């Protein structure tokens, strides 16, 4: 799975063009709109991969891709609300009780417990979010990303767990490479962004492929989402 995902990006004759576009958009992420476009493209990767398509999608239909990215961002934001709220609450509690003495000990405990809870919930979000995005990519309905029945069966599946760990290894490897490239001022940072985009495409391809194994989307490519649900 790991080797196949890394070669997937190069299965298109335009793979270099795709990586260049994706890398440039990632570099321009501070302008906000390019970030949504990159996320929209990654959702397109998930959607095509779950249908068993061997080639990565092209950068086209920009308006549709932007809308897809906006919806994906909204889903990710909703998933992140719990760790975000926990971080805010415990930061306030820690600040209020940070007055030294015994109260200072209470403040330290609040900080420790808060950090642990934020870490655990953030890890849970990182594990569950790709499944939510894949469910949205299949049905084109944002509500499906929060389908608890789907999430329960998917997140406890060995197929999904293996795919998630494999994708994590890809992201981790890219992070190490990007970090090593940072020793070269500016140029290394820029190249690292392109490496990270390449890894993101490979990682989301893994998630899409795993989703296709758990849900036979590729067998019903010509059907509308409502038709699939009725079967």
Automatic annotation (TrEMBL):
This is DUF4013 domain-containing protein. InterPro entries: DUF4013. The keyword Transport does not apply. Keywords: Membrane, Transmembrane, Transmembrane helix. The chain crosses the membrane at residues 20-43, 73-96, 108-137, 158-180, 186-207. It comes from the Archaea. Pfam families: DUF4013 (PF13197). The keyword Cell division does not apply. It comes from Haloprofundus marisrubri.
């Amino acid at each position: 799975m790991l080797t196949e995902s890394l070669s997937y990006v190069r299965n298109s004759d335009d793979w270099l063009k795709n990586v260049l576009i994706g890398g440039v958009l990632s570099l321009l992420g501070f302008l906000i709109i390019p970030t949504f476009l990159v996320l929209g493209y990654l959702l397109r990767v998930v959607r095509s991969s779950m249908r068993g398509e061997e080639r990565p999608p092209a950068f086209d239909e920009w308006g549709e891709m932007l809308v897809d990215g906006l919806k994906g961002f909204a889903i990710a934001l909703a998933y992140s609300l719990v760790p975000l709220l926990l971080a805010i609450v415990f930061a306030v509690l820690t600040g209020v009780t940070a007055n030294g003495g015994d109260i200072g000990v209470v403040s330290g405990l609040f900080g420790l417990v808060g950090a642990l809870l934020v870490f655990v919930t953030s890890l849970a979000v990182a594990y569950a979010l790709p499944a939510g995005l894949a469910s949205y990519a299949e049905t084109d309905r944002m509500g499906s990303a929060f389908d608890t029945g789907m999430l329960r069966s998917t997140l406890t599946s060995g197929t999904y767990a293996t795919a998630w760990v494999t994708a994590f290894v890809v992201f981790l490897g890219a992070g190490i490479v990007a970090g090593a490239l940072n020793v070269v001022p500016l140029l290394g940072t820029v190249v690292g962004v392109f490496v990270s985009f390449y890894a993101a495409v490979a990682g989301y391809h893994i998630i899409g492929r795993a989703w296709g194994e758990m849900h036979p989307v590729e067998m019903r490519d010509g059907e509308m989402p409502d038709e699939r649900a009725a079967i």
